[in-house]
Amino acid sequence: MFAVYAVYNQEREKIYIGQTQNLEERLKMHNDHALGGYTSHFSGTWIVIYKEDVLTRQEALVREKQLKSFRGREFIRKHIPR
Asked: Is the residue at 82 inside a domain?
């Protein structure tokens, strides 16, 4: 089982969309700046604002790509806590 997810950094108003097999561990890595990628560039706490489960990594990659599209990002923005 894989999770396609979006995390949000309220302090910096940034969104990151990704996929993983262990969302709890991945969120910890985002917040500890252990990944060395996009999320490590910003201070503040990342929170999960969206998650959906899929069966295979291939499905996760396809869905991740959809959510990173313009329409996908519009959909994700609706999940940002106000």
From this structure: no
